[in-house]
Write a structure and sequence with these properties.
Layout (H helix, E strand, L loop, with lengths): L21 E10 L5 E10 L5 E6 L9 E9 L4 E8 L2 E4 L8 E7 L7 E10 L4 E9 L8 E6 L13 E5 L7 E3 L7 E3 L1
Length: 191
Amino acid sequence: FNKKSKAYTFEFSLDTKQLADGPQVIWFLAHDSLNTQGMYSFLLFVDNTVPEVKIVSPAETDTVNGIFAITGYAKDTVGLKALSWTCGKQSGTLDLIPGNPFFTFNCDMHEENAKTVEIVISATDTAGNMTKAVRKQPFNQEQDEPIISLFSPSSDNVSDGQLTLLGFASDDDAVAEVDYFIDTQSAKNKK
């Protein structure tokens, strides 16, 4: 009993692991010696569950190269406080948009030459519970090289005059230009 404030102090231990995640109302009921009752309620948000995090794309068996997008989702029953990522030697944070659990970001691995790249998505909820989605993604830098196909002239063609070179160049990152060389001559550029 506190004589100055004329109030009794009380203390209860509450194991929130026994409660469902989400909003819970705690009711307090006080009785005096004349059997009068006073009531008080307190809204408590219980969050004992770690957030759910999943990498949706690329698929676990997909081999990635160069610049590739990582897509997934992170959600929690009460709410997220932070969402971050690591891809190889790169890292960053992702903006949280209320009501939208999905995320996408690009990972630039042009300077890497490993067999796999580690992707880590870390999510922390408002209660401080943290979880990570970790994936070792197959990686092949050679698949990032542009592909060139020549269809004219044919391989058995013998030329004695003007010659037109026709072909296709393709790449998932878009072809910027095509250069050609004849033996030891300088590069000639044709887009």
